[in-house]
Design goal:
This protein is α+β, with helices and mostly antiparallel strands. It has one domain (61-238): 3-Layer(aba) Sandwich (Rossmann fold). The protein contains eight helices and twelve strands. A hairpin with a 2-residue loop joins strand 2 and strand 3 (32-39). Helix 3 (65-79) crosses helix 8 and helix 4 packs across helix 8. The longest helix is centred in the C-terminal third of the chain and has 17 residues, at 219-235.
Length: 248
């Protein structure tokens, strides 16, 4: 049986830590386990099956929402060097609960002159390639950073709704289920890109051609709670206006 995953931390189970260009560190804050995987060479990227970049897996099992928000906020703050203009993209399909994390987060974002949002939806609904739409909006908005939010696939059901992955390498929509889509990253958009995702399902392929999506019964509650936490962590970012003045 083949099990697929979007999480870098799960790919490490079959990866020797002696690979050059692959560094893994773990620390704990407020009972929350944070595993940082740094992929710095092409060889390491090929071995782990993830692009060069930094991947942070935040394991929040049995943690309080305020602690999770604090950790996510601190992590995002450490990765974003310029908050003059933030474009937040919510990937997914709001008509399919398990794929609605991105759009649901956008509902709670406090937009303004420095934070703008975009929901490209999916090709099956709009008839427009979502990656091309994001490229166009990025050229129009001219942000200093793009944050892309999407639902992820995990190999372990216990990670659903309890793990958050933040990475600097961007994201490939649908990669966890084998779709060959274009990667949304800094090379494509010409601006730093952060990807935030939460596992919402596991996928099993016991036989060739057969795909089973395993989703919890309370996925609507999981999406709602995780979206609220992500939005709060973004809403509390310190914004720097074009004059260089920091605003809370």
């Amino acid at each position: 049986m083949k099990i697929v995953t979007d999480l870098a931390c799960e790919l490490l189970r079959r990866t020797p830590h002696s690979i050059t260009g692959l560094t893994v560190t773990t620390n704990e804050q407020s009972g929350i386990r944070i595993q940082t995987t740094q992929v710095t060479t092409t060889a390491a990227a090929h071995f782990i099956g993830k692009p060069i970049g930094t991947y942070l897996n935040i394991d929040t099992v049995n943690s309080k929402p305020r602690h999770i928000i604090h950790i996510l906020h601190r992590t995002l703050s450490s990765l974003i060097t310029d908050t003059t203009k933030i474009l937040i993209v919510g990937l997914g399909n709001d008509k399919f609960v398990a794929d609605s994390l991105g759009p649901t987060v956008l509902e709670h974002i406090q937009t303004g002159n420095q934070i703008v949002t975009f929901e490209p939806n999916v090709f099956g609904v709009t008839g427009i390639n979502s990656v091309q739409a994001i490229q166009a909006i990025t050229r129009l908005v001219r942000p200093t950073v793009v944050i892309v939010i999407d639902s992820l696939v995990s190999a372990a059901p216990s990670r659903i709704g309890t793990n958050y992955q933040i990475c600097t390498s961007g994201i490939t929509p649908g990669s966890g289920i084998g779709r060959d889509n274009q990667t949304i990253n800094q090379k494509l958009l010409k601006v730093p890109v952060l990807a935030i995702g939460v596992p919402v399902c596991t996928i099993m392929t016991p036989q060739q051609g057969q795909i089973y999506h395993v989703v919890p019964k309370d996925i609507d509650v999981i999406i709602r709670d995780c979206a609220d936490i992500i939005a709060r962590s973004i809403n509390t970012l310190e914004l720097r206006n074009p004059c260089g003045v920091t605003k809370p």
